[in-house]
Write a structure and sequence with these properties.
Elements: E1 2-10, E2 29-38, H1 42-55, H2 68-79, E3 84-91, H3 97-103
Antiparallel strand pairs: 1-2, 2-3
Length: 104
């Protein structure tokens, strides 16, 4: 049995996007990420995440709140875990509703 954790970043369903010329508005990208964990490994992964937080001295692992070196440490640490990572990046000017419908 497996557990699948999903998170998103971006501003779906908006009509005004940031561009090089226009600095206000939503990000032009929608990002969907997922982690597939063996149910039997859930506790090990949770302990590993706690260790990563302690190592980079952060309670919150949102990348927007991490320095470049903290992001690098986080990525290298997660890469060592026995998990499967998924990611989708979509340009918001493309219709993304169908992607979420098929994944979820």
């Amino acid at each position: 049995m497996y557990k699948f954790y999903v998170d998103e970043s971006g501003d779906p369903n908006t009509s005004k996007f940031r561009t090089d010329a226009e600095k206000s508005g939503a990000t032009p990208f929608m990002v969907l990420g997922g982690v597939l964990v063996k149910e039997s490994d859930t506790e090990i992964v949770q302990e590993s995440i706690k260790g990563i937080k302690e190592k980079i001295t952060k309670d919150n692992l949102h990348c927007r709140d991490l320095s470049h070196l903290q992001k690098r440490c986080f990525a290298q640490s997660v890469a060592k875990l026995d998990v499967t990572l998924f990611g989708i990046v979509s340009l918001n000017s493309q219709k993304t509703d169908h992607i979420l419908t098929h994944i979820l």
